[in-house]
TrEMBL record:
One of its GO terms (molecular function) is very-low-density lipoprotein particle receptor binding. Residues 5-113 form the Alpha-2-macroglobulin receptor-associated protein domain. It comes from the Eukaryota. Pfam families: Alpha-2-MRAP_C, Alpha-2-MRAP_N. Keywords: Signal. One of its GO terms (cellular component) is endoplasmic reticulum-Golgi intermediate compartment. GO terms for biological process: negative regulation of receptor internalization; negative regulation of very-low-density lipoprotein particle clearance. Residues 1-18 form the signal peptide. Transmembrane segments: none annotated. Residues 132-346 form the Alpha-2-macroglobulin RAP C-terminal domain. This is Alpha-2-macroglobulin receptor-associated protein. PANTHER family: ALPHA-2-MACROGLOBULIN RECEPTOR-ASSOCIATED PROTEIN.
Amino acid sequence: MKLPCLVVALCFGVGVMAGKYSRDVNEPKSSDGQKLEFRIAKLDQVWNKANRMQLSPVRQSELHSDLKIQEKDELQWKKLKVEGLDENGEKEAQLRRNFNVILAKYGMDGKRDTRSLESNHLKDHDIKEGDTFEDPRLDKLWNKAKSSGKFSSEEMMSLKREFQHHKDKTHEYNILMDTISRTEEEIHKNEISALEGDTKEHVLHQKHSDLKQKMSDLNQGFERLRKISREGFSTDSEFREPRVIELWEAAKRANLSDNELDSLKEELRHFETKVEKHSHYQEQLELSHQKLQHVESLGDKEHIKRNQEKYNTIAEKTREMGYKMKKHMQDLSNKISREGLEHNEL
């Protein structure tokens, strides 16, 4: 009897096929068999377009992380839709807005990106040589901090990260303003039915609420920068990274109990370590890219190949860490909002 051998052979074959299926067959592929980066066609198209645009390595990595978050959210929404849990289309509209924000953020929305320079939503001034953050208020604070002599070189780096974060948040606010303006124009046109108009009005109301919250966050963020620029960093500061500080400030405003805040503080410490690790990889990615460019200019094919492989490895790791970091931030933000809402309802 050779049955045991046959069973072993079959089990081994199934195991191999299962592994192959999970690794290869289950990966999204195009009609010609090429592996796709994303399972959703429009996201894959955006990624391919970005590759042709030759974004900087760090910016390309950031885009990849944003698209992965968008993919996760859209796949989750499709399950909700099948279960009938998005009847008013609010989640769908939010996803569409998030996608439009990504396109605008990386200059792929089909128009020249002048928001950070010409938008009068938050600022209206000519860019002068020496301006760092494209906002006269930020530039004034930054120059004041630089000349004060109260910051060490390490503190100046931390402060610059906070200023850059505020600039990025301002840019996101202006993108949202543009999105709302376009939605309002659609509503006032006669091209949509009354039912669609009601739905869009509801979505628009939600967008205005988001806008109001973002403006409140920006104002509080600017006041924090002004205080730091005037008084320096507090010796008992809980966190260093701007995104973590923003979450902690939101948590303190959310009417949470002391035990909940202590628990969240510990989680934020772990998150801050993740943010710092991701920043380190971004720096390594930029350095690796510079080295690759230098090697390419020398023309040694073997040397180029080794550096290209090293660069690809760092790029993949940076994208992976970027996605995990942004997903963690998304989860923390949702958790703070949810728990704060529950306390307010009690």
